[in-house]
Design brief:
The protein is an alpha+beta fold. 32% of the residues lie in helices and 18% in strands. It has 35 helices and 40 strands. It is elongated and about 180 Å long. The relative contact order is 0.03.
Length: 1015
């Protein structure tokens, strides 16, 4: 009763909330214990400058929300900032709200640190009784007023009261006059009471310190959807900054959906009672409120700009949360009120938050958008990481995927959309219907194509990702008809071909047979697969044919392509061992007929087993057509049969010839024939002496870094079996064999250069007695008379180009340019059975000496001149004439004579001595030194100035007309002088003109004019 009376007295005195009594109790407590004063001052300062330093707007909104809850009215708040609204012209922040008005308990709570009056309000946000301390950070004279009265706290008035307490003087001095602001309330009355806007119930008035204005402005700018979601009791918040007004409204249309300023937020909430064991380490007042609450708010259009990515507990903390939704939960806070306190309760709420987030995702419409809401594994902090971990642990069991499929039951594939739809539904969307019995899902749980298979979020959901190549491989077990496969191929047009290598393909013929991989399969084009079963070919079923198969290596096979298939070649090679050789022959000959190939174009066809007229099977290449000219020109023991008459009638000569049956000589063909491999017998074309031909070609080419190749090789076979060469050559002179004889082969070297070499056929013919029983190289063409007597004229009947290819000689130069040509010429010159005119002999020896690449063996016999006659003599008796001045000394001596200047080279080739080295050459007569007549210089400009004239020149006891071997020019008479001068100046051809002008200098002009006419 005494307390009630005191309250009545206070109300009558203009102090309805008993502020005087509160002040007296506080001052008495401080007087009795100055340490209590210091403690209160430090605590308030810690809150104002620490955990609540920039929270004044949030705390004002929180108080407004709690007031609305207590009054059970819609929460409304108006925040107004006026730059010059204070009594001293400073900025003022006012917060007017609807709800329960200020009462005595509220004033006492606001003036008592950490003693909230809301501890029994289960729905209130404020829990600790310290939130109002945030005003201390911005104002030294905060005031609150309701229609029931008002209070104010003043730092100046509080300081005056403290100064009146002597025991506090020292502490006040040490604190520089700073006193706790909120411990000493004062009643407001009359004109001091701030105006309360109509429709609102309470107003907080905060004259701002100058250094706080900017912070308050920033806080007002940050008021947004996050605040409305954290304080659901608020339905509207108006912010008025110097007349610039904006308003936030929250409309809760239905459970789980909130619209704030037009932005839709999806929410999910959970709450309950905290198990007592989790509160054992929490403060008493928290234990008295054993309730927990978790709320997630997800914006449909993404978090608005400026929304802090932090945990709200329920107002913003400093715990970072980098998720696409707001988390508002009753996490226990550390003493700084900024961070979540670790411990069992926090761990419990993390699990509840994870459950609620997953439930929120499950309440959303099924869409790939959910993937953007799946948290990654790395958090922005410890609490964020724990929340993420809890969410990700639950996601595989959450039905978030199409048809509310759980992630662990789903499959994702990175493949073209039509393919995925086809496997998921058994038909192409918008396409033709499936055949009866073909409907149904091929891959269960397959996600639609709009769900990106490689999104890491799918892995977090527990979705199993399969590669396109693996699915393609597994399709071989699917039992579907060819038309179904055709439709499936159409869905893979945009797929990467490297994943389709094992694509199943139904084959024609064998019922239901499926093979993996289109490569090498045949797509029939103008051929009937049914008639080719004996060849083991693999044709795509006609109803399954699709352009994709050709992209993947299937061959669009007309007759020619089918014929080139490896299976056909294998069937031909094994035709003698086939169960039904006739069926193989029928199929192959049908392809040959349809392909219209030329004889020899596919030389391997010669191995096809065909019946002969004797009933035996022969390789096609060993059968002759009945009218083949080979029947008359081959040897009797040649291994040839004649093709069966019925086979000939069935297919005709043209088809059989294309298959290798011989109407004429068979042609061997090859590509990139390795000459080194052929020479070493490492490779073979099954041609007679092919290794010798290759070895001869390699010698012509010379050493190479890499084996030379013949890109296009053609040769005539079976030449070694010919008996009638006259008939054979007539046949070879006609197409198609002629080209194999007359056209050279071309070898490609490692540097890319191409070298022409004799063809195998020409080379073989040139080395065998095919022309009148003799080798072609033993004959010559008419034209170059230098070879007269050495070679016979080639027989008539063959054209010149063919004879040239066979090796018939054409000219002396061509002979010497041939490998071994010089040796052949030397051998023929030493053959006494041949006749060489005296007029040609010197030319032949001169040409041999000029052949710089010539390599010969020293001869046993040589063709020499003996006293003007041509004779074949022992080489040991012959000398090479090295100058005409010794001729008078060599009567009866066999001489090999070449043009001037060739004597040393010729002596070296023939291994013969020089004539000048075999005579003493002593001048035994005396002569007189004379000047060479001036007229000689007109013919021989380099003539010597003097010579030694002899009346009768004697050398080695014999009279000679001239001599120059001792270094002097000796001459006897005009003829001798002319020859000595011409030889010494290497102008031997001018000797007769010099002799003429020496006899009669007057004839010089006429002789010079005549020489001008020489070609």
């Amino acid at each position: 009763m005494r307390d009630d009376a005191a309250k009545d007295d206070a109300a009558r005195d203009g102090d309805p909330f008993g502020t005087r009594a509160l002040r007296e109790r506080v001052l008495r407590a401080w007087s009795e214990s100055p340490a209590r004063f210091r403690e209160d001052a430090n605590t308030e300062e810690d809150f104002a400058l620490g955990g609540y330093r920039d929270r004044v707007v949030v705390e004002l909104a929180q108080n407004a929300a709690d007031a609305a809850l207590r009054a059970a009215v819609p929460g409304r708040l108006r925040l107004t900032l006026r730059a010059g609204g204070g009594s001293e012209g400073g900025a003022v922040l006012t917060a007017a709200n609807a709800g329960a008005p200020l009462d005595e308990a509220g004033v006492e709570a606001l003036s008592t640190l950490r003693a909230s009056s809301k501890r029994d309000d289960a729905g209130s946000v404020g829990r600790f009784g310290v939130g109002f301390a945030a005003v201390v950070a911005v104002s030294d004279r905060p005031a609150i007023a309701s229609r029931t009265g008002g209070v104010v706290w003043s730092r100046e008035r509080a300081r005056e009261l403290v100064e009146g307490v002597p025991v506090l003087a020292d502490e006040l001095a040490r604190r520089g006059g700073h006193v706790p602001l909120l411990r000493l309330p004062f009643a407001l009355a009359g004109a001091e009471l701030p105006d309360i806007p109509a429709g609102l119930d309470t107003v907080v008035r905060l004259p701002l310190r100058g250094d706080a204005v900017e912070s308050v402005q920033r806080q007002l700018e940050q008021v947004g959807a996050a605040l409305m979601l954290a304080l659901p009791a608020l339905e509207s918040v108006a912010i008025d900054v110097d007349g610039d007004v904006r308003e936030l409204t929250a409309e809760r249309r239905e459970p789980g959906e909130v619209v704030i300023d037009g932005g839709v937020w999806r929410t999910a909430e959970a709450h309950g009672e905290i198990p007592a064991a989790l509160l054992e380490d929490r403060p008493v007042e928290e234990r008295a409120r054993p309730f927990w609450q978790v709320r997630w708010a997800l914006p449909e259009s993404g978090l608005p700009e400026g929304v802090p990515g932090v945990v709200h507990a329920p107002t913003p903390s400093d715990e970072r949360l980098d998720l696409p939704a707001l988390l508002i939960a009753s996490f226990p806070l550390a003493p700084d009120r900024r961070h979540v306190a670790p411990g069992p309760l926090t761990d419990f709420l993390v699990e509840r938050a994870a459950e609620t987030y997953v439930r929120l995702l499950g309440e959303l419409p099924v869409s790939p958008r959910v993937l953007r809401l799946v948290p990654g594994p790395v958090g922005a902090g410890e609490l964020d990481a724990k929340v993420r971990r809890g969410i990700r642990e639950r996601l595989p069991e959450a039905p978030l995927l199409p048809h509310r499929t759980r992630g662990r039951d789903a499959v994702a594939m990175d493949a073209p959309a039509p393919f995925i739809e086809f496997l998921a539904h058994g038909a192409v969307p918008g396409g033709e219907e499936s055949e009866p019995g073909e409907e149904g899902v091929v891959v269960a749980g397959l996600l639609p194509p709009e769900w990106p298979a490689r999104d890491p979020a799918l892995a977090a959901l527990g979705v199993r990702r399969v590669e396109l190549a693996d699915v393609i491989d597994e399709l071989a077990a699917v039992d579907r008809g060819p038309a179904w496969w055709h439709r499936l191929y159409g869905t893979l047009a945009e797929a990467a071909t490297d994943a389709l290598g094992a694509l199943p393909v139904p084959l024609a013929g064998d019922a239901g047979r499926i093979v993996r991989g289109p490569r090498g399969l045949l797509i029939a084009d103008g051929v009937d697969p049914g008639g080719l079963d004996a060849l083991g070919l693999r044709f795509v079923h006609p109803e399954a044919v699709h352009p994709l198969l050709a992209r993947l290596g299937a061959v669009e096979a007309g007759p020619r392509a089918v014929l080139g298939d490896a299976a056909v070649r294998a069937a031909v090679e094994e035709s003698f061992e086939a169960d039904d050789p006739d069926a193989v022959a029928e199929a192959v000959l049908g392809l040959v007929a349809a392909a219209h190939i030329d004889p020899g174009e596919e030389s391997w066809l010669a191995d096809l087993a065909l019946p002969g007229d004797d009933g035996d099977l022969y390789p096609a290449g060993e059968l002759l057509l009945p009218e083949s000219p080979l029947r008359d020109l081959m040897a009797d023991d040649a291994p040839f049969g004649v093709v069966d008459g019925e086979v000939l009638e069935r297919w005709g000569a043209e088809v059989l010839a294309a298959a290798g049956v011989l109407d004429g000589f068979a042609l061997a063909r090859g590509e990139d024939v390795n000459l080194t491999g052929l020479a070493d017998a490492a490779e073979t074309l099954e041609l007679d002496d092919e290794d010798r031909w290759a070895d001869d070609v390699l010698r012509r080419i010379g050493p190479q870094d890499l084996p030379p190749l013949v890109p296009e090789f053609v040769a005539v076979r079976d030449l070694e079996l010919v008996d009638d060469w006259a008939a054979a050559l007539r046949l070879l002179s006609r197409p198609p064999w002629r080209a194999a004889v007359v056209d050279p082969a071309h070898a490609t070297l490692h540097n890319g250069r191409r070298v022409a070499v004799p063809s195998y056929t020409a080379w073989w013919l040139s080395r065998h007695p095919v022309l009148d029983g003799r080798r072609p190289g033993e004959f010559r063409l008419g034209g170059d008379e230098a070879l007269t007597g050495l070679y016979d004229i080639a027989p008539e009947g063959l054209d010149e180009r063919l004879l040239l290819a066979l090796g018939v000689r054409t000219s002396l130069d061509d002979l010497l340019n041939e490998p071994g040509g010089a040796q052949e010429l030397l051998d023929r010159l030493g053959d006494p059975g041949r006749s060489v005119p005296r007029a040609h002999l010197g030319e032949l020896w001169t040409a041999l000496a000029d052949a710089r690449e010539a390599e010969v063996e020293a001869p046993d016999h040589v063709r020499a001149v003996v006293d003007g006659k041509v004779e074949v003599v022992d080489a040991a008796d012959a000398l090479v004439l090295d100058g005409p001045d010794v001729l008078p000394l060599l009567q009866g001596q066999p001489l090999v004579i070449a043009a001037q200047g060739r004597h040393e080279r010729l002596a070296e080739l023939l291994d013969l001595p020089l004539a000048g080295d075999e005579v003493p050459g002593v001048v035994q007569s005396q002569g007189e030194k004379r000047s060479v007549p001036d007229v000689v210089a007109a013919v021989l400009p380099e003539t010597p100035a003097h010579y030694i004239a002899h009346e009768r020149l004697v050398v080695d006891g014999q009279h000679v007309p001239w001599w120059t071997r001792d270094g002097e020019i000796h001459a006897s008479g005009p003829g001798g002088l002319a020859r000595a001068l011409a030889w010494s100046t290497e102008n031997w051809a001018d000797r007769l003109m010099v002799e003429a002008v020496l006899h009669d200098p007057e004839v010089l002009p006429r002789l010079l004019a005549e020489s001008d006419l020489e070609p």
